[in-house]
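Table S2 (text version). Query chain:
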Amino acid sequence: MTKRPIKVYADTSVYGGVFDEEFAEASQAFFDLVRSGEFTLCVSEVVHQELSAAPGNVNELFMELLPTAQLLDIEAESLELQQAYIAEGILTEKWYDDALHVALAAVAECNIIVSWNFKHIVNFRKIPLFNAVNVLKGYRQIAIHSQLEVIDYEE
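Corresponding structure-token output:
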């Protein structure tokens, strides 16, 4: 039986993590799993726009992976879910893009969101709230993790 790749949305922090000493090892291991076909990488225009201000090597990594990634369009359905997160007080308007990352992944039925954003996304208080809104709005729950939790470790 062939294994289906796991559909993973990577927010902006994941790309920069490759070039940050603290996050480099796990971030690189995650992208190695993307390259090997274990994960189907999902990206959005939000990530692309946020990376426009990033250093060149971060943009180069994004552009390298883009041809094999699934590009998620920002449509009304995602914007409505994003606004539901804000209306429920999970995030404020100031963190509009963070709410949109989660909404895009939920609408696209990603299995996992990976992020180094522990304040607004990978947060034990916020994850169940995102998922409660997802279920109330007819979407399935989504796993939200840092790359440390989704990479393979040698036994």
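Notes on Table S2: The chain has a mean pLDDT of 95. The first helix runs from residue 12 to 17.
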